[in-house]
Write a structure and sequence with these properties.
Glutaredoxin, OB fold (Dihydrolipoamide Acetyltransferase, E2P), 5 domains, 5-stranded mixed beta sheet, 12 helices, 20 strands, 32% helix, 18% strand
């Protein structure tokens, strides 16, 4: 393609319908400049020919067929052509030697090359893998650029069917008329695997394109924006629930997790560990599924340091009706480590040849070059009798033959060395994968050990605090039971809240409902001191920050039913005195306009106010 062809590509309204082949240094340089120029309207997938090969390891035609008008596909050789491309591109963004790369429309990859992943290929055996990877990258880049809009062209139909199975990043769907359609992972939710959205046997419906046979389910997806995701979290989880989250980013002092795609929560070090020397970047890995506790809905607040191993997390919401939970609990078993792949005979990724820009002497012919200039054996020039060939020429031919044999031996030795290097590279990749998995397991084990340590520290402090308190006087100091109760609450507050914090944590105004003190006397299995301690937590507002108290509003029935309210507008709340048993005790109280009204102490299964 000449300069006019390049201009046509730059000014076209859609990507070229066929694979574009770069054949000259000028075309390669122009491609690089076009990739770096703002305003490009579609992603560009560049696949390169490996050195010494006439065909790429990936399939450019299949890539183009899959992405259609959503992306441009370019094929470029590894030679002076790829070096011309590399000279223009920023460091870390080049591609050559049989590898491939998709350049998104957003220029964030210029400063962060990881946003344009380099896909390696070492032999024809990698054809399927690199082809699928480049297709996936191109479709995700098109989706991120807003090029994948719900289809509205003629022929597109609204169809329904059932998922028959998931194979990698594709799902097979049998439509109601028994036609077969596919769902593409890249055209659902960016960064979410297809088996997190669909499950075998799930009914689905969406827009079906008879030409590509793709079924577009995006119109049926749930939690597609922050508002709907927040509503989903409020519906699925209550305050105090143990929930699953996916690590989206991690720094030394904070970790960011996703409760739903697009809904992230930043958690500081203080809510993860009490060890000031811990760096969270050493405790979490991006993409890891972790367990945490929900502290508040507005704003969303999470903790990691108050999660018991025995408590099973609540199931994560489904992203599509009838689908699986989008997050699954981490598998405690160590993952199986696959054996390293056998070495491939192809040469590894090599840097493009660098040309020296200076005045140099013409290259001297090698023995291989001279041998190629000799006429073949069947030609008359070589058919002369031996005595007709001058002795000097015969000696020169013998010398060239010896040098050619040495050249071939050298090339064979280098090929063997390259094979060994490829095998070692495969071993190192397998070792790196095993080391990465071991690190993730150690991170999880460390977090679990640190949680156990924090629980023991809290228990020790609590035990020491009780030991330091004066012995409880069994005989009441007041004849009126309510006066006695208020006295005990005041004493607990005075002992529990440090002097420097008393002004910030006063006891709120409260009343005792008829029957409240009777419920304390009648209910066995819980100490009066524990009830008074939790009452102080409620009155000082501390209960909102203690996940183990499982604070939430009381409902009239099952989850989703209305909250309990009185005619005066008071709302009923429920807080845990004990946990993890059917007979665990709960404290019910009303939140009124004037303060608090303590209603009853009840068993876990008693939901009456």
């Amino acid at each position: 393609m000449g300069q006019s062809g390049i201009t046509e590509v730059a000014s076209a309204a859609a990507p070229p319908p066929q694979v574009r082949r770069i054949a000259s240094e000028a075309e390669a340089s122009e491609l690089a400049h076009r990739l770096l120029t703002p305003g490009r309207r579609w992603p560009v997938a560049v696949l390169t020919l490996p050195t010494g090969y006439d065909e790429p390891f990936g399939d450019p035609d299949e890539i183009k067929e899959a992405v259609g008008e959503l992306a441009e596909v370019v094929l470029m050789p590894t030679s002076d052509v790829s070096w011309a491309f590399s000279r223009v591109m920023p460091p870390g963004t080049q591609v050559y030697g049989g590898a491939g790369r998709v350049y998104p429309v957003d220029h964030g990859w210029v400063l962060n090359p990881a946003r344009s992943r380099l896909r390696f290929a070492y032999s024809p055996q990698d054809r399927r893998r690199i082809t699928d990877e480049l297709i996936s990258d191109a479709l995700q880049a098109a989706l991120a650029a807003g090029l994948v809009e719900p289809p509205t062209r003629p022929g597109v139909q609204h169809r329904s069917g059932r998922v028959q199975g998931i194979i990698g990043s594709r799902a097979l769907v049998t439509l109601d008329d028994m036609a077969v359609a596919t769902v593409w992972e890249e055209l659902t939710i960016p960064g979410v695997a297809l088996d997190q959205v669909l499950v075998k046997g799930q009914p689905v419906e969406g827009s079906y394109d008879p030409v590509s046979r793709r079924l577009d389910l995006r119109a049926a997806l749930r939690f597609t924006d922050v508002a709907s995701a927040l509503a989903g979290v409020n519906e699925a989880y209550q305050i105090g629930d143990v929930v699953l989250a996916e690590v989206a980013a991690v720094a030394d002092d904070a970790v960011t997790v996703r409760l739903l795609p697009g809904l992230s929560v930043k958690v500081g070090r203080g809510a993860v560990t009490t060890n000031p020397d811990d760096r969270l970047s050493g405790l979490f890995s991006i993409g890891e599924i972790v367990v945490c506790r929900l502290l508040a809905h507005e704003p969303l607040s999470l903790r990691f340091d108050d999660v018991d191993d025995e408590v099973a997390p609540k199931p994560a919401p489904s992203l599509l009706a009838g689908g699986p939970p989008w997050l699954r609990p981490p598998d405690p078993r160590p993952p199986a480590v696959a054996a390293p792949p056998p070495p491939a005979p192809a040469p590894p990724l090599a840097a493009p040849p660098r040309r020296v820009v200076q005045n140099v002497a013409p290259r001297q012919p090698t023995p291989l070059d001279l041998a190629r200039r000799l006429p073949p054996p069947q030609q008359p020039a070589m058919a002369r009798p031996a005595e007709a060939v001058p002795a000097g020429e015969q000696a020169h031919v013998v010398q060239l033959g010896n040098e050619l044999a040495a050249e071939r031996a050298t090339r064979k030795a280098l090929a063997g060395e390259l094979t060994g290097l490829r095998a070692r590279a495969a071993e190192l990749e397998a070792e790196l994968a095993r080391a990465t998995r071991s690190i993730e397991q150690l991170q999880t084990r460390y977090r679990g050990a640190d949680l156990a340590r924090q629980r023991l520290v809290k228990q020790l402090r609590s035990t020491q605090g009780r030991a330091d308190r004066p012995a409880t006087v069994e005989a009441p100091l007041f004849l009126d039971p309510e006066e006695q109760f208020r006295y005990e609450v005041t004493c607990e507050w005075a002992q529990r809240v440090p002097a420097a914090e008393k002004a910030a944590k006063p006891l709120a105004t409260y009343v005792l409902a008829p029957g409240f003190l009777d419920s304390i006397e009648q209910l066995e299995g819980i100490s009066r001191a524990k009830i008074i301690a939790v009452v102080v937590e409620v009155l000082t507002g501390q209960v909102q920050h203690i996940a183990g108290r499982d604070l939430h509003q009381l409902r009239t029935g099952r989850a989703g039913s209305p909250y309990v309210r009185r005619a005066d507008g008071a709302t009923c709340w429920r807080v845990a005195l004990q946990r993890d048993s059917a007979a665990a005790r709960r404290l019910h109280y009303w939140r009124t306009q004037d303060g608090y009204e303590f209603s009853r102490v009840v068993l876990h299964d008693d939901y009456h106010p």
